[in-house]
Amino acid sequence: MMTPGRRSSTFTRLLRHGFTDPSAAERLMESAELAPIRNDPVLLDALGATADPDLALLGLVRLVEAQDGHTAQRELLDTLIAAKPLRDRLLGVLGASAALGDHLARHPLDWQVLVMYEPQDLHPGTAEFERGLAEASDPVLLRVAYRRCLLSIAARDVCGTTDVAQTAAELADLATATLRAALAIARTAAPEDAAMCRLAVIAMGKCGGHELNYVSDVDVIFVGEAVDGADEGKALRAATRLASHLMRICSETTVEGSIWPVDANLRPEGRNGPLVRTLSSHLAYYQRWAKTWEFQALLKARPVAGDVELGESYVATLAPLVWQVAERENFVPDVQKMRRRVVENIPVAEIERELKLGPGGLRDVEFAVQLLQLVHGRADTSLRSGTTLDALKALAVGGYVGRVDAVLLDDAYRFLRSMEHRIQLFRLRRTHLVPEDDADLRRIGRSLGLRTDPIGELNREWKRHASVVRRLHEKLFYRPLLDAVAQLAPGESRLSTTAARERLVALGYADPAAALRHLEALASGVSRKAAIQRTLLPVLLGWFADSADPDAGLFNFRKVSGALGKTPWYLRLLRDEGAAAENLARVLSAGRLAPDLLMRAPEAVALLGDGDGGGLEPRGRAQLEQEILAAVGRASGGEAAVTAARGVRRRELFRTAAIDIVNSYGTDETPANADQGALVDLVGGAVSDLTAATLAGALRAVVREGWGDTLPTRFAVIGMGRFGGHELGYGSDADVLFVHEPREGVDEQEASRAANSVVSEMRRLLEVSSADPPLLIDADLRPEGKSGPLVRTLKSYEAYYRRWSLVWEAHALLRAEVVAGDEELGRRFIELVDPLRYPAEGLGEDAVREIRRLKARMESERMPRGADPTLHTKLGRGGLSDVEWAVQLLQLRHGWEEPGLRTTRTREALAAACAAELISGEDASTLDEAWVLATRVRNAVMLVRGRAGDTFPSDGRELAAVGRYLGYGPGHVGDMLDDYRRTTRRARAVVEELFYGAGDR
What is the pTM of this model? Predict the structure, then answer.
């Protein structure tokens, strides 16, 4: 009798052999069913070697209980102890799969299929599985026979007799045999249909690729033809009935469960298309309508059942189209977009556990391999395998993939597929999620040979392999391009020049020969610089390819590296700071403006990093003004001082353009900013603050050069138009008014000469040709326009506005805001004009009519000849002018009574009008959306072309770059233009009502 509190020796031995519930296991070991063998040491050792000893023991007891009588039980137990192969296979399956344990309990004689293998049974093919299913005459018997065959596959798998690739191939062969058996059952049930048509079943996906999972949809496409003399329509209907019956036989749940779903949604037109088509109908669809992903899917097409000749004709007919798909415009971006869409559709809560579809998952390897096959398979038939690992091996042999990269990916793919198999085998359920329960993780880890710390080792190995895939799956496409041009280790297969050009063209490079020259210049040699650039370039090339102009991105990178390559911090920045390299790639390939600004002072690359000295967030006006005034103070003369101020402006324009591009494109870590209004406000505020600070610096420089510390007259600069509204774009002029007031005791003429001299010199120095972009000053909104004096005293403005002011001037003054110079003088100017822009009791009807007349005249006279009014961002239908005039009319009419309308900013005024119920929320949203979109287009045009413009570019590549900035992927330029027209058409309808409509608003 055991002493109370002490555990039995059996309990201790069970713990030592890996049982997690030794108390329950001890009770099972003491059961009558195991009495003949419970003391045999080989039993415990064999159970301890399984993935889950507790599960294996329970399954064994259930199997013995299910035997028909004592003799059958004794035969099972004797064989189990005497035959190690059976012991390993049977207990291995029972410890890895609760579902197959259930099958054995229902069909207790099926253990006998594991007793011994003939040599030919070690690696069975389709013929052997067909023999195993031959007696299945109905769907229930087919399920039982299928599970019996699956039992033998799982036994070879868990015992290590087959590796993961062989197991996947056997599962695909079993699926082939099952489809043939199901079709035979369907034909037997409908002999008239069978006699009328020829039907071929084409396996797709993993079944077609000979790499099936334990539980997966079996993807198929059906091809049908009429037999000689039969009516084609009737024959196709008959074939459709047979195909539908086949799908039900495999998919429907019976007393023996189901086999797997048969999925025909990869057929032309998907689930909306006919289930069965003729070969000619398939061909017509793929020639005219098929998308890139549909050709990618055909890589794995394989005839598996039905009419062999028809199936082979299908593959032979469509194969040429598959190998031409890489010539399609936007081929690579289309494939990559499809991959991104898959990731985006994964629920956030599951993405970290998603073994197949998540980042670093199986699909990353498969997509990368298929992409390379489609690019190079047309010229190299050795690459035309539907099996991922075979294709990867062929790519490495041909030099299309680096050998080391191929080995790493092969190892990772095998490990991830093994995990997937073990996860699915447990319950025979279709899932790709790594479980969270420790018991499940422990079983999976032990099944993969991780016995010391199954859970910890499994998680570490999984994360390591996923990290390898994440790091390599995109580089896989680009690294061989460097090997093709760099003089590296001899004996290594490398990409031929022709193959390298093919790949570059597929990536979107318009001039592959030039691109190869750039790569050679960047990556050749044994210097530290070349070594680091060889590491960086595979990633950079991917980011360049994600833009509308990869050629420009690579060329600009070569220029920047040529200028900074010998600077120690430059390559260290790109290598060590995660954001810098990607930010640089985005900036260099997004258009002309940002690279032009950068090349004038390449050290601004430091702004792209996330360490000291980096950071793309625009700086505030006070900080900018402080730096510019300090630089002016250090300069030796007026010209040098303004040059310093312009240098700061150039750097800060680059900073603003860079963050605008990065936020618009998004990065690998951060998606694109979906708030378009926030992006517009960021650019408008940053450029306006920078312009104000630059004017302040120029004013200080000119005054100091000509008059020392004090100008004979107080002087202020008033921002107007977009400048006053904090809405400047990259290419905007600075609309201003100049106001001065003679100091006490100073002659008015002397003060006027000084003020005019200041303005003249400021304009000259800010506009003079230099390495920095000019800042153009426009004072045409002053009283009397171009005919009036450039500078006036405050009293002169007061007299003019009192006697001569016109409606358009009050309209223009809505944007007036002090931007530089004497703050007190500027404040008094604003106090002077407030009654003009916010007239008491609002505008009279005559003034309203005048405003409307001016707007109509501007629309008819200022629109450039030949411009499309539906696409002109400033003067076109529903564009900037429409929205701004409508909002400003509300300000003129109601600003006196609604304080919120007293703002120089369009969006703020629009929101205030909505809050005051002067415009509905829906209409306000419509106007805001159109104004933001038109502003974004103007900014995009300047970024892409390097010069301002109010219309979409006519050049295709430039237009695509504008689309990319606005969030439209490759091939969606038409959608962009349609969306712009739709948005501005709705805005124009609101403007018609708000601006030209009822007079009581």
Answer: 0.75
